[in-house]
Specification:
Blueprint (H helix, E strand, L loop, with lengths): L2 H4 E9 L5 H16 L3 H14 L3 E3 L2 E2 L2 E4 L6 E11 L9 E10 L4 H14 L2 H8 L4 H10 L10 H11 L3
Length: 171
């Protein structure tokens, strides 16, 4: 599995102003409706329910909100870059400006975990995060994410550990 397998070019967006986590989840839900045809209200409820189990801000300005939904036949992603970072109750207490949301079928198993691990590994790369922050063009953002090696390993295990905790605690 690679980022390009789960992230449609149309599912990448830059937001100038987002005032709250709830408003961000509304944006994600509406984008998911328009790109993947899922019910926006169901998506919003599922994202908020998952977030209530524990924040999905994994550190270094990155959040990985995720939810399981009816109406999907595969794992899909949405990427948003915020021009103004948002408080997300992240593990390192830093505001978040890079959001990669994952939506999975209600009945999915290992594919959801594989996608979460893939995104976590990908966004662990500081050089990639810097390049994402330096761009506001959705086409360029998608190209950067899609070109990221799927199997790249890094010394820091923080992101993977946090992703594993998120899965165990209720993703």
């Amino acid at each position: 599995m690679q980022i390009a397998d789960i992230l449609s070019p149309a599912a990448v967006k830059t937001l100038a102003q987002t005032t709250s986590k709830k408003r961000l989840f509304q944006e994600v839900s509406e984008l998911a409706r328009s790109i993947y045809g899922v019910d926006a209200a169901q998506t919003l409820d599922a994202l908020q329910e998952r977030e209530s189990l524990g924040p999905t801000g994994v550190g270094h300005g990155v959040a990985l909100p995720h939810a399981r939904l009816h109406g999907l036949d595969r794992v899909v992603g949405l990427f948003l870059r915020l021009e103004k970072p948002l408080d997300f109750d992240a593990v390192d207490r830093q505001p978040v400006d890079l959001i990669f949301a994952l939506l999975a079928p209600k009945s999915t198993g290992v594919d959801h975990l594989k996608a979460l691990a893939l995104v976590s590994r990908t966004l662990r790369d500081q050089d990639l995060r810097n390049k994402l922050r330096a761009n506001d063009d959705p086409v360029a953002l998608h190209a950067l994410l899609a070109a990221a090696p799927a199997s790249k390993r890094h010394k820091s295990l923080h992101f993977f550990a946090r992703a594993a905790i998120m899965v165990v605690t209720g993703s």
